């Protein structure tokens, strides 16, 4: 209050408001979390500041948050969610990824914390082509798609369970297609008769294992002679 000693006395009052930018309270906020597929996850984010900060949740990759409500578990996709607690129920592998809690109160700067949600499930193997044919003498590629979390050990075998290793005959590679999926590729070079038969792509993690089967056959060109004509026929083995 400012006062002037006159007759009559004059005074002027003012109110000073101190504002404090938001700050995440680390000891009361969730860290990275692991849940089994089909389970529930509860992420908590606490922040201090004045005025009291508002909390907004978003997925780091920009995809929508899946909200399930009621006994039926009705699913709703929302771009963001508010409140200190984000509860995810009946979690699927598609919900795996980074979540951001963002605290703001109109006093810059806003702050955020990143939390990684890991969803664990046993491997699943998909084989796009279970029967593959290629001409003898050419290179052929076998492909399997694998989904697994935690990360799986992936490898190839012949149908006799003999493990395949990279050498002058075989080249193996993996291409990551998402946070939990990879494409397994096996290249068989200079295909010969003894390479034909069954192949297995196998995936194992701490929860379980799975395999896919591919049968490889060769395409031959055989010359058939007769008295007055020659013909070519293709045989598959």
TrEMBL record:
Mind telling me which InterPro entries this protein's record contains? Ig-like_dom (IPR007110), Ig-like_dom_sf (IPR036179), Ig-like_fold (IPR013783), Ig_sub (IPR003599), Ig_sub2 (IPR003598), Neural/epithelial_adhesion (IPR051170)
* Localization (cell): Cell membrane
The chain positions of domain Ig-like read 22-112, 123-217
SMART domains given in the database record: IG, IGc2
GO CC: one term? neuron projection
Residue ranges annotated as transmembrane are none
Q: Which PROSITE patterns match?
A: IG_LIKE
Task: List the PANTHER family hit by this protein, alphabetically.
Answer: CTX-RELATED TYPE I TRANSMEMBRANE PROTEIN, DPR-INTERACTING PROTEIN BETA, ISOFORM C
Q: What is this protein called?
A: Lachesin-like protein
- Species source reads Lasius niger (Black garden ant)
Which lineage ranks, top first, belong to the organism behind this chain? Eukaryota, Metazoa, Ecdysozoa, Arthropoda, Hexapoda
